[in-house]
Specification:
The protein is an alpha/beta fold and about 270 residues long. Helix content is about 45%, strand content about 15%. Helix 1 links the parallel strand 1 and strand 2. The longest helix is centred in the middle third of the chain and has 28 residues.
Length: about 270
């Protein structure tokens, strides 16, 4: 399954006047969400620090002939001014209807040597920025004449943890708490949900394989087979578009009662045991 296999949904709100704001849109799951949203006719505003990656996402949208437009905005989610500017750019593009907080970072190190600056940056990007963006767009969602939604990228690491990833683990539990808090205040005028997956074939995952191998004293192949897939009832990593399809399903009218819930697609990692 590739980016040319998006889930297409019949929803009257999926049109160019409505905006889907996506973070991390230069690569991986964020790019896939941007592509699937554009495939469904939405105007997409994508934020990322990677300007060239955003340009590539734009080229992919155009090259695949998707009906929705893509607007890339270079923004560092660790900077509040950039976050607020990103929300304003989305507001200028149309009616903010959907927010997908996807951007993520990873750092692998044992707790006794985990750098404070890395802990802080992961939380700035993965917890603080989603809070800031949600706070910025909730008034838009409440004012709209339809029910929009905020979707947050969680993880199986928001349900259980693995070693040497303290900042990521804590952040993903925080993302689920943010999702529930948003839903508690939604009053039926918008929805919030999260998406949790196991390991997905993205640069974030691929880039951490060598360091995980070094930390655990095992081979790169063993990281994939034993650490990433060992607890899952699957033989391959998920593709980004499979995750993106869950975001768009959650945004659609078909998920009208999805609020405060986590969509977990983990191949049995959390709830099944050998």
């Amino acid at each position: 399954m590739g980016p040319d296999d998006p889930l297409l949904l019949d929803d009257d709100r999926f049109h160019g006047g409505n905006v889907c704001l996506v973070t991390g849109a230069a690569s991986g799951i964020g790019r896939a969400v941007a592509l699937v949203a554009a495939a469904n006719g939405l105007t997409v505003v994508g934020g990322d620090v990677d300007e060239s990656g955003l340009a590539e996402t734009s080229e992919r949208v155009d090259g695949l002939g998707f009906p929705g437009q893509f607007h890339g905005v270079v923004a560092d989610l660790a900077e509040q001014d950039d976050v607020e500017r990103l929300a304003e750019r989305a507001r200028e593009a149309g009616t903010i209807t959907y927010l997908a907080n996807v951007a993520g970072l990873q750092h692998v190190a044992p707790i006794e040597s985990f750098p404070t600056e890395q802990f802080d940056r992961l939380h700035d990007v993965m917890v603080r920025a989603p809070f800031l963006l949600s706070r910025a767009v909730v008034p838009d969602l409440r004012a709209a004449d339809h029910c929009g939604a905020i979707a947050n990228m969680a993880s199986v690491h928001g349900h259980y943890v693995t070693s040497d990833k303290v900042a990521y683990n804590v952040a993903k539990f925080g993302v689920r708490g943010l999702t529930n808090s948003l839903a508690a205040e939604s009053d039926g005028d918008f929805r919030a949900f999260s998406v949790s997956t196991g390991y997905v074939k993205t640069p974030l995952v691929v880039d951490q394989i060598p360091e995980t191998a070094r930390q655990r004293g095992i081979s790169v192949d063993e990281v994939v087979e034993d650490v990433m897939l060992g607890q899952a009832r699957a033989t391959e990593l998920m593709e980004p578009v499979e995750v993106a399809n869950q975001f768009l399903y959650g945004f659609s009218e078909h998920a009208a009662h999805l609020n405060g819930t986590d969509l977990r697609h983990d191949d049995g990692m959390v709830d099944t045991y050998e």
